[in-house]
């Protein structure tokens, strides 16, 4: 199956699970499973999903459909331009935290 078809299937699974950002999350999970940047993945949607990456992708889909934070699944999150490694037990920085940090820096 093509990467695009796999992403479409994952997006539907996520939407059915009540995840608002279903398509976006499916693209991020596919990129992580493939070990590529999201921009590379969405630029090659017609390519076939390699078997090994497909197996990783399926496991990651199950985790996200269970509402596990996306950052835990892909293993990183960007905060203030820095890519940080995250995992279970780690507090994932939220977008509003970036605003708070920016305000604190400006006041310092």
Summarize this structure briefly.
This protein is mainly alpha-helical and 108 residues long. It contains six helices and two strands.
Can you tell me about this structure?
It contains six helices and two strands, in the order αααααββα. The model has no long low-confidence stretch (mean pLDDT 94). It folds into two domains: 1-69, Helicase, Ruva Protein, domain 3, CATH 1.10.8; 75-108, no CATH class. The chain has helices spanning 3-16, 22-34, 38-42, 51-65, 70-74, 95-107, and strands spanning 76-79, 82-85. With 108 residues, the protein is mainly α. The protein is elongated, with a radius of gyration of 15 Å. Helix 1 packs across helix 2 (22-34), helix 1 (3-16) packs parallel to helix 4 (51-65) and helix 2 (22-34) runs antiparallel to helix 4. A hairpin with a 2-residue loop joins strand 1 (76-79) and strand 2 (82-85). Helices cover 60% and strands 7% of the residues.
CATH architecture of the largest domain: Orthogonal Bundle
Oligomerization status of the protein chains: single chain
Strand content: 5-15%
Structural class: mainly alpha
Shape: elongated
CATH topology annotation of the largest domain: Helicase, Ruva Protein, domain 3
Main β-sheet, spatial strand arrangement: 1-2
- Major sheet summary line: 2 strands, antiparallel
Average per-residue pLDDT, rounded, comes to 94
Radius of gyration: 15 Å
Q: Which CATH C-level class of the largest domain is it?
A: Mainly Alpha
Name the poorly predicted regions.
none
Order of helices and strands: HHHHHEEH
How much helicity do the residues have?
Answer: 55-70%
Number of domains: 2
The number of distinct helices, counting runs of at least 4 residues, comes to 6
* Terminal Cα span: 53 Å
